[in-house]
Design brief:
The chain has 12 helices and 17 strands. The chain is of the alpha/beta class and about 400 residues long. The strands form 4 sheets. The protein has a 7-stranded mixed beta sheet. A 5-stranded parallel beta sheet has the order 10-2-1-11-17, with helices on one face. The mean pLDDT is about 95. Bound molecules: uridine-5'-diphosphate.
Length: about 400
C-alpha cells in the first residue's frame, strides 16, 4: 500500500453501494466493517429461493441488470455468472394486452393498423400535441410525444398508481426512462449488456463482500452517534434518517406485495403491467420467468401495490418533487458540515438509481477515496450532487 496506512472504514448498508465500496477498499488493504439494519445483505435487490417451489424470488420486486458500462458489466461478471436475459414487458389496458415499451407492434395493435415504421412515425406525430414545445411535466412529455390515446391507456393510470400524484405534478424525467420505438424491438431496455445472475443477486453481493478484510454484521442499526472512531464512514442509508429526521421526512414510495402461488404458468411472462386506474395494482411479477433456464411446476407471483412510505416502511422510490427537493437541500447543507462521512447510493443521495449506475458510482467513490488518501486530501461528503 505504499505510504498509506491501513484505514478502518465503516460502511452503513450492505446493498450494492456498500458492498462495492467495501470490496474496493478491502482490496487496497483497508479494514472494512459493513453493517446492515436488515437480517440480510443485498438491500432491495435481495433474492431468495422459495422453499416450496424452489423459484428464485426477487423479494423486493423485479431487478433486471442492464448497462452500457463495460467496466460495470465486467465487475458483476467477476462475482456471479450472468445469463443473458431480455426484459419483455406486457401491459393489460382497456381489456386488452399490448407490447411495451410502446413500439410498432403496440401502435398497430392499439390503432388496429398495419403501419410500417415511417407511416407510424408520421401518424404518431399527428397524434402528439405539437403546441407543447418544452415539456416539463410527465403529462406534457407524454402528450407531446405519443398523444392523448396512448397516454391515457399506458401512462396515466399506471403513473397515478405508482406515484400517487397526477402526471401534471411529476417531472418529465420519469417518462424519459421509457422509449417509443417505430420498429418491432420490444426489449424494455436499450442497453448492450443485459442479464440475470444465475443464482440470484444475493449470491452476487455475497461474492463481492467475500474478502478477508471485510466483516459483515446484520441486524445492526447504527446511528450518527455510534460511528466515532472510524477513519471514514460511507452511509448508504437514507440521508434524512442519518440526521434523525430533524428537518422532516423526505417522501418515498413504498411497495406492498401481495404474494400468491399458482401451479403452472399464471401469466406467460415475468412482468405484466396494468394501465387501468380501476385495477389497484401496478404490475404482477411471475418470478420464475426471470430464470427461464430453470424449470418449475409451481409459480410464485407478486401483485405490486405502491403507496406513500410511512416511518416503518421500506423506502423504494424517492419522490423528488419541489417540496422534497427543498428539504433535501437543507439536509445536503447539513451533511456538508460533517466530516469523515460520504453519502452514497439511492437512499444516501435520494435519487432514482438503477443498479448499474449505483455500481458505477460506488467504483468511482472508492477510487476517489483511495486517491484522497494518497494525496492527503479530504474525501468529499458527496461524490454525486443529490440535487442534480
Ligand atoms: N410507466 C407507465 N406505464 C408503464 C410503465 C411505466 O406509465 O406501463 C411510467 C411510470 O410512471 C413509471 C415510469 O414510467 O414510474 C418508469 O417506469 P419503469 O418501468 O422504468 O419503472 P421501475 O421498473 O423502475 O419501477
Amino acid at each position: 500500500m505504499g505510504e498509506v496506512q491501513p484505514k478502518s472504514v465503516l460502511l452503513v448498508g450492505a446493498g450494492l453501494s456498500g458492498a462495492v465500496i467495501g470490496r474496493e477498499l478491502a482490496e487496497a488493504g483497508h479494514q472494512i466493517r459493513v453493517v446492515d439494519a436488515r437480517p440480510h445483505i443485498a438491500g432491495n435487490c435481495y433474492t431468495e429461493r422459495d422453499a416450496d417451489t424452489q423459484v428464485m424470488v426477487h423479494v423486493y420486486g423485479p431487478h433486471i441488470f442492464h448497462t452500457d458500462d463495460s467496466e460495470v458489466w465486467g465487475y458483476v461478471n467477476r462475482f456471479a455468472k450472468f445469463i443473458p436475459y431480455k426484459n419483455r414487458v406486457k401491459i393489460t389496458a382497456q381489456k386488452r394486452v399490448f407490447s411495451l415499451p410502446i413500439n410498432l407492434h403496440t401502435i398497430n395493435q392499439f390503432f388496429g393498423g398495419t403501419m410500417r415504421p415511417d407511416e407510424a412515425r408520421e401518424f404518431i406525430t399527428t397524434k402528439g400535441d405539437s403546441s407543447i414545445t418544452d415539456p416539463k411535466t410527465f403529462e406534457d412529455q407524454a402528450l407531446r410525444f405519443v398523444g392523448q390515446d396512448l397516454y391515457e391507456a399506458f401512462f396515466k393510470g399506471y403513473t397515478v398508481k405508482q406515484w400517487g400524484r397526477h402526471p401534471k405534478e411529476l417531472p418529465a424525467s420519469i417518462l424519459k426512462r421509457l422509449p417509443v420505438r417505430f420498429n418491432y424491438d420490444d426489449d424494455y431496455f436499450a442497453h448492450r449488456f443485459q442479464g440475470m445472475p444465475e443464482n440470484g443477486y444475493t449470491e452476487l453481493v455475497a461474492g463481492i463482500l467475500d474478502h478477508p478484510n471485510i466483516k459483515v454484521e446484520l441486524d445492526t442499526h447504527l446511528t450518527r452517534d455510534d460511528v466515532a472512531g472510524y477513519d471514514h464512514v460511507f452511509n448508504s442509508g437514507p440521508i434524512d434518517a442519518w440526521f434523525a429526521h430533524s428537518l422532516g421526512r423526505l417522501s418515498y414510495r413504498t411497495l406492498d406485495f401481495r404474494r400468491f402461488t399458482y401451479t403452472g404458468d399464471y401469466q406467460g411472462c415475468a412482468v405484466m403491467n396494468y394501465g387501468d386506474v380501476s385495477v389497484p395494482w401496478t404490475r404482477i411479477t411471475e418470478h420464475k420467468h426471470f430464470s427461464p433456464w430453470e424449470s418449475h411446476e409451481g409459480s410464485v407471483l407478486y401483485e405490486e401495490h405502491s403507496r406513500e412510505c410511512g416511518p416503518d416502511d421500506i423506502p423504494y422510490y424517492p419522490v423528488r418533487l419541489v417540496t422534497e427537493k427543498q428539504v433535501l437541500g437543507d439536509y445536503v447543507d447539513m451533511a456538508y458540515k460533517e466530516s469523515g462521512i460520504t453519502f452514497v447510493g439511492r437512499l444516501g443521495t435520494y435519487r432514482y438509481l438503477d443498479m448499474d449506475v449505483t455500481i458505477r458510482e460506488a467504483l468511482d467513490t472508492a477510487r476517489i477515496y483511495l486517491d484522497s488518501l494518497k494525496a492527503k486530501k479530504q474525501m468529499p461528503v458527496f461524490v454525486k450532487d443529490p440535487l442534480m
